[in-house]
Structure formats: C-alpha cells, structure tokens
Amino acid sequence: MAGFHDLNVPWTKDTKELQRTVAFLDELGYDVVALTYTYPAGRLPADLASPVPHPLPFPTPSRLRLLRRCNIFLTDSASNFRIPQLQQHYDLIAARPTDERTLQQACQSLDVDIISLDLTQKFEKHFKYPMLGTAVSRGIKIELCYSQAILSSDPTAKRNLISNAVQLIRVTRGRGLMFSSEAKSVLGVRAPSDVINLASVWGLGAERGKDGLTKEPRSVVEFARLKRQSFKGIVDVVYGGEKPPAPEVEKEKQTPKDQTNPLKDQKRKARESMEGTPVSQSGEEKPISKRQMKRNKKAKTGAEQ
Amino acid sequence: MVRVKNRYLVVNFLYPASSTASKSGDATPELLQFHAPTPDAFHTGILLRVVREGVAELFGDYGTSMAGAGLKVNYWSPATSTAIIRCPREHYEMIWAALTFITKLPKPVDIPVIVQVVRVSGTIRKAEEEVIRRAKQIICRVKTTDAGGKNPIVDSIAKSVEKRRDAENAVLAQIDEADESESESD
C-alpha cells in the first residue's frame, strides 16, 4: 500500500520550525513529504538552483522520504517558464495559475506535475470539466490545500475555500484530486484520517479521499521521477539486486570442454532464445534495437531451414 | 428493544508548538513534547463547549441540533491528553470535522493544539482498549528511542504514566459499568 503523502509543506529558513514540522508530520503518520519553495510572482530569477539544501541541516526521521518541489506563478501565458531547467533542480513542479487563460494553458500544454489553485479567492468563472479533464488525463493532478480553511482568521477566505473545494470535487468527479496541507506553521497540519473525514464532509467519498492522500500523489511522484530519470519517460532500469554468486562461474570455467559439445548440438535453440532476452539485472546493458531484433530473427529462421 | 446507536471517537490532543521548548531546551525529546499533558484548567465541560461551538461555527443551527443531541465526553485524561467522545452515529462526521478545525484551547489555558481522531468505534469497550494500547505504545517508543535511562525526565514520566495507567484502568471499568446501565435504560 502506498503511504500517506503531503506534497506541499512550505520551506522556511527557520530551521527549528521546519524540523519541528517535519518531525510532527512523521508523528502523524505521513510517509512522503515535499518541501516547497515558491518563486515570487513575476519573472523567474536567473539562477534557478533550489534554495532547499539537499541533505537538510537537521536529522530527519528515517522513515520519512523528503522531496523538493517548487511553485511557479502563472501570471502571463506568453512568458517562458524554463520548466526543463527547473526539472533538474526539483523533484516536483507545481503551477499556480492566476486567471482563466493561464489555467487553460497549464491544463493543456505546460509540462508541470501539479496544478495548485489558490482556493481562498473567488474565481470569476466556474471550472469546466473538459479543461480539467485534459489535465487529469495527461497525468497532472489538481491539488486542494486544506490548511487555509483551518488557520485563516478571515471567514470569507474559509467560505471561498470550502465552496471552491466542493466545486472542484463536483467538476472533476473526484478524479485526479490530491490533498496537501500548505501549512504556514505546524498548526495547519492534520492527520491523514482527519483529512479523509474532511474530504468526505465536503462531498468526496471516503475511498476517493483516501486515494487523494495515497494513490494520486504517489502517481505524481513516480511519474515525475520517471520523467527525469528514465529513457524517454518509458523505460527505466530497476536495480534488481546482485547477480548470482561467483561459484557458478568458476564451475563453468572448470569444465569448458564438457559444456561446449552439448550446447552446439542440442541446446542451440535454447541458447539463442536466452541471448534474445535482455538481461534486466545488468544496469549498463542497453535494450536491443529493433533492427538488431529483426536480424536475430532472420538468422534464427535461416538456421532452422 | 431498539437501542440508540452511537459512535465513540478516541481523540488525542497534540501540542506541536509547545511553549516549554524554549525554557527546557532540547532535553525532552520531540515525541514527548507532542504528547505533552494538558493543564488541569481544561476539563470536560470546556471540551464539550469547544466541540459544540465548533459544530455551530461549521454547520450552524442544523448541525448543533442534529449532532449535539447525544454528545457526551465519556472519558478525559489530562495526563495523556486523551478523550473519548460519544456522538450520534448518523452525524459523527460533523463532530469529527469540528474537532479537526480546532486550533487552540480556549481562554483559561490558551495553548495552540491539534486534535487528532485516532479511532472511531461502535462500542466503548473497543475505544477503551485502543486508549490503553496507545498509551502502552507511546511508552515503549520513548523507551526505545532513548535507549536506557540517559534522560531522567523521560524515566520519571514513564514511571508516573505507568503508575497512572492502573488507576485509569479502574476508572475505565467504572465508565463501562455506567454506560451499560445507561444503554439499558434507553
């Protein structure tokens, strides 16, 4: 089972506060936490390197997996967001659209991982399913941040957040939603089960609410990881443990004569088929190209005839 | 005879931003700071009032009248900051949401707090068992993380909690009896 995720914990320079927050999230039972750095609205700075230090300056709970994430404001659809460069520095990239057009752009074309809306303000237009549906089908998740509803002293912000959340749940039909805290202080964080209950009060079933804390964010994290590390986002080499121990190899060396003969006559086919399958355990070996596969096949059929 | 169905919420009060941290330094581990005891000024009546106000704020008159009817605090332990709250089965989610929205204990105490619902149970017996299990678990975790009495504060707390647990068991048994007689009368 996937663990509980909280993919939006704002990063602060106050190390003690951050350490406390991280320890408390661990205490509440979260497994994956993303520290967020929000770029100020307007143009991105020239140096995109993450201000979040990679090994954090304090001991972190061993069970917890920490990721780095950045938020970028989409104020103008024409500007260049330099997302490929950002991808090198962060594990996750979230876009925060400010109006209708940038939201559409984020849903349809931008290569971000998460769309995070500021739910405390009122939107002029209702959300539409086709727009959000394309985002969900592209693997982008829509984020609901609940801490504003808890911490905010302004009742209209609270009201807006709840009504927007309910609308989003209705429009997306509960698909592709994920919950995160965006807690400015430790007090905005809630335990996973409490968040699930909150979701069910807001009209999302308990099952979907649980998905919003486990399955959906996990798929975002894994998809983002694959985008960065794997070959064209499709093929990834997984470390499958060490190769079988050495003694077998020594045996083969000891009896080279005995092995060659039977292999030539009887087990020729078997040996060929063994060669055809790529060995998944060796990390450096490239997958066989199509041309090479065709050649192998031709040679094989020729040999049979 | 038809019984009135209830849900029992086992609730933990956590103190993430403890005020004692600055005074005592880093002597006490974070685990204990989060599970700090609640001041005695906060008692069952205030807890009930806080929950009622929370429901009224979130759900209005409808909420208070639907969910407030069977509301009762069955058990409250300031030492472990644990409570068992009884609420009507159909509307326990409202109470739970109201608990989630609590950020602060009210005036006489005035400490920021996070309320975590640990378990929802249909019978009070299971709720009690959960409370006892949790208390044991925390003591075990503190002992293992500190590895052998380096910290005198932790030791004394562990001892006092252990002593307290026997007393708690007796109290819980009393509650159990009281509850049974109550449900019979319904």
UniProtKB/TrEMBL annotation, chain A:
Keywords: tRNA processing
MF GO annotations: RNA binding
Name assigned to this protein: PHP domain-like protein
InterPro entries for this protein: Pol/histidinol_Pase-like, RNase_P_p30
Intracellular or extracellular location(s): Nucleus
One cellular component (GO) term of this entry: nucleolar ribonuclease P complex
GO biological process, alphabetically ordered: tRNA processing
Chief location category: nucleus
Region (Disordered), start-end ranges: 238-305
Source species of the chain: Trematosphaeria pertusa
Family listed: Belongs to the eukaryotic/archaeal RNase P protein component 3 family.
Superkingdom of this protein's organism: Eukaryota
Annotated Basic residues bias: 289-305
UniProtKB/TrEMBL annotation, chain B:
GO biological process, one term: tRNA 5'-leader removal
GO molecular function: ribonuclease P activity; ribonuclease P RNA binding
Enzyme class: hydrolase
Function comment: Component of ribonuclease P, a protein complex that generates mature tRNA molecules by cleaving their 5'-ends. Also a component of RNase MRP, which cleaves pre-rRNA sequences.
Protein name stated in the entry: Ribonuclease P/MRP protein subunit POP5
A Gene Ontology cellular-component term: ribonuclease MRP complex
Subcellular location: Nucleus
Recorded superkingdom: Eukaryota
Keyword Hydrolase set for record: yes
Known EC number: 3.1.26.5
Catalysed reactions listed for this entry: Endonucleolytic cleavage of RNA, removing 5'-extranucleotides from tRNA precursor
